[in-house]
Amino acid sequence: MKLNTKRTVLVGLAFMSICAFWQLYDGIIPLILKNSFHVGDTISGGIMALDNVLALFLLPLFGGISDRVDSKYGRRIPFIVGGTAIAVVSMLLIPIADDIRSLVLFIVGLLLVLLAMSTYRSPAVALMPDVTPKPLRSKGNAIINLMGAVGGMITLLLISALVPKTGKPDYFPLFLVVAIIMIVSIVVLVLRVKERAAVAEVMAQEPEEEPQTGANGQPAPMEKAVKKSLIFILLSVALWFMGYNAVTTAFSKYAQVYWGLQGGGFANCLLIATAAAIVSYIPVGIIATKIGRKKTILFGVALLAISFASGTLFRSFSPVINGIFVVVGIAWASINVNSYPMVVEMSRGSDVGKFTGFYYSFSMSAQIITPILSGALLEHVGYYTLFPYAAFFVALSFVTMLFVKHGDSRPIPPADKLEAFDTGD
User: Fold this and answer.
1) pLDDT tens figures, 168-224
2) How would you classify residue 84: left for phi > 0, otherwise alpha for psi between -120 and 50, otherwise beta?
3) Is residue 197 in a domain?
4) Computed from CA positions of residues 105, 110, 115, 119, in that sequence, does the dihedral angle turn out positive or negative?
5) CA distance 301 to 297
6) Would you call 345 exposed, middle or buried from its count of C-beta atoms within 10 A (0-12, 13-18, 19+)?
7) 106 and 236 share a domain?
8) Domain that holds residue 381
9) Is there a single domain that holds both residue 326 and residue 371?
10) pTM of the full predicted structure?
11) Which of 323, 299, 302 has its CA nearest to residue 311?
12) Are the beta carbons of 388 and 312 closer than 8 angstroms?
């Protein structure tokens, strides 16, 4: 049994287009809200959290609906095509609204694009396991994550190149290029991947599974000690996302207002962090096989807290900040590669989906709360609060991780280097 790498890369185009959009959203929408519509940071934080509010309800809804669809094009492709089509039209309304200063058009465009993205993210992610045999899904997920990282980096490069350092920026060319990337990605996916045929091929390779049941046909209850570990690692997930997402959401306007970076210069820092994270996946995977996932996560959490605390020392931009963001990327990779597998390892085989839901419920809930809370501090206390806020919550996650006693079996060293990129996203 061998992974169809070419097909997996093509399937990953959908996730690449999604990540390209979300990087654009996180980088530019806060600037439009602040500079064009003069929205306060608290309300801006609430708007930036809206995508996660919608995700809590719409991702499982449309994922479940796509499970039950049976079209001639497959279960997932119709959602991917339809969602992308609505998203690329809606997203172009945003720079137009910014140019003519129409808050109503901006809100309409933003709501439409967020709804559209929510309709096809789950089907796009689910397409990979649909067309990949179970023993090979780790490698497949590695490729999907790499494609997503490429999408984010492409957008950061475009922001750096297309957003001017002086004058009123015209964001339409930037949004248009990202929209074209999304369209081309999905067109290539649809033309080159025949979903129904690929699914049939995979089903022919896999034996039917016996339904898994516990004693008396009921699953055994989770041990109290394991449940305690599960609660504490989920709290840890929420806490480090509280810190990390506060920075990523507000960084574009923070860099302009507090550090004086102009135009798309802020994207270079995020680009450096993303590149450092990608390069770190393999070393982090190797380290985890030697010392265990928990210690690797604690190392990453400590490194991330120190990095964010270091950010408080700078009142203006310095090249040293780029070095700090290299460390941020390494730290986030150390956390991200190992946290999801620890959560899932506490589950039974039949409960993996449910435990995946636990992981994303806590991470998304944190990303709903933190833009609003950190935004209120930015607006009513001062921009200097961003990095202390982030460092505080990340440091708290170090404390809660100390109480996690399960899910820490050392992973088997990857047979293929691609498996080291499997982060469960």
Assistant:
1) 899 999 999 999 999 999 999 999 999 999 988 888 876 655 554 555 556 667 788
2) alpha
3) yes
4) positive
5) 6
6) middle
7) no
8) 224-425
9) yes
10) 0.78
11) 323
12) yes
Asked whether residue 218 is domain-assigned, the answer is no
Please report, for the domain that includes residue 118, its CATH number: 1.20.1250.20
- H or E element, residue 401: helix 386-401
| β partners of residue 74 | 71
Q: Does the residue 138 lie in any domain?
A: yes
Locate tokens 């995020």: which residue?
270
Decide if 407 contacts 342 (C-beta within 8 A).
yes
3-state DSSP percent of the chain in helix, strand and coil, to 5: 80, 0, 20
| Cα gap 147→218, rounded to integer Å | 40
Place of tokens 């929205």: 39
Phi, psi dihedral angles at 74 (to 5 degrees): 110, -175
How many Å apart are CA 411 and CA 416, to the nearest integer? Answer: 13
Collapsing DSSP states into helix, strand and coil, what is residue 131? coil
Domain boundary among 206, 235, 256: 206
Return the bridge partners of 117, or none. none
Which two three-digit tokens encode residue 314? 């700078």
pLDDT in tens, 299-346: 999 999 999 999 999 999 999 999 999 999 999 988 987 887 788 778
How many structural domains is the chain composed of? Answer: 2
Beta carbons of 326 and 276 less than 8 angstroms apart: yes
Whether 381 maps to a domain, the answer reads yes
Q: Which amino acid is at 33?
A: L
The full DSSP string for 57-76 is HHHHHHHHHHHH--BTTBSS
